[in-house]
Amino acid sequence: MVLQAAVLHDLGKVGLDDSLLRKPGLSAEEFHHIMEHPEVSAGLLEGLTLFQGGRDIVLHHHERYDGKGYPDHLEGENIPLGARIIAVADSFDAMVSMRPYRDKSLTVTEALKILDQERGAQFDPELVVTFTKLVREHVERGDMTNFPSTVQVGSTDGVSIAAGVQA
Fold this sequence. Notes:
Elements: H1 2-8, H2 18-22, H3 28-34, H4 37-45, H5 52-59, H6 81-96, H7 108-117, H8 125-141
Helix pairs in contact: 1-5, 4-5, 5-6, 6-7, 7-8
């Protein structure tokens, strides 16, 4: 269910103008419009009775562990586990991928540091620890098949990976 929800979590962006999604700077109104995509995604999945648990995961993938997310300001364990998993993975992917609003993507090391800094605030703290451990295992094995093709592992600024996982 979580894997299917991960594939469909941004389905609601299909109705948004591509220029808006690629725009480097957004007005408050434009950002508010983009923030509606989880509800649009969930609405598109509404009639799929076999996917109802997935619908809630999709709806809540932008909730924050501290309750400051959207659309319903859920917090902590009240956010479906699948949505908390997708939040960590989707944010990591966004950080290590190229985006129109920044000159370059972050390295794996830099992205993991940001996830660690947001443990307990934006992200489920235990999921960040688990995710970091899994990413480190992939990097150590040299298995980068599930990472964006342009991902960079190391950092040129000496940033270390903490995330509560011992080296």
